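In this notation, each integer encodes one residue's backbone shape. One such record reads:

___
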Amino acid sequence: MKKQAYHHGNLRQALVEAGLSLARDGGPRAVVLRGASREAGVSHNAAYRHFEDREALLAAVSHRCMEELGTLMNLRLSAVTETAEPSRSWTRLDTLGRAYVEFARTEPGWFQTAFSATGTHALPLPEASEAAPHPFLLLTQCLDDLTEARAVPADRRHGSEYAAWSAVHGLSHLLIDGPLRQLPEQEVQLALDVTLSVISRGL
């Protein structure tokens, strides 16, 4: 990302975009006010007019990274062409999981940053009214669709989003910064296939 000259009214957004660029290359540790100020082409002191500290900037960048993840997942969902239920909803659930792992592997810096906000700045679960596609909302909607299509019993639906999200999130971390990061591609696909199959069978 090229440095941008500051124009009145857009400094906060410029700093967030600068932080997004830093996160892409270096993960959450790279998101610091001084670095974002330098990327945005403004003084370090100017950044404090919009972010009280580094944690506040990191939270804003984390939110943007989560939006990037949701955008990719939504894009992959839009490519699903099946219309018959429940096959459509099962395919959508599988597609969500694959897109999640795809994002983690292709954008590890953003993926790690998306979940890095802590303390008072920790990102809450999204409200259903949020406009941007959020991974959690996309997942819950897909599971609701499966229940509506009577593919998943109603008594198994409650809370199933936590188990499904945990399984795919855990696999993603194991693949990008855990003991599975050196797996051959064929084994990566096997791990993903089995994980998604276990999720579906559990439902």
Q: What stands out?
A: The two ends are 43 Å apart (CA to CA). Residues 1-8 have pLDDT under 50 and may be disordered. DSSP finds ten helices and no strands in the chain.
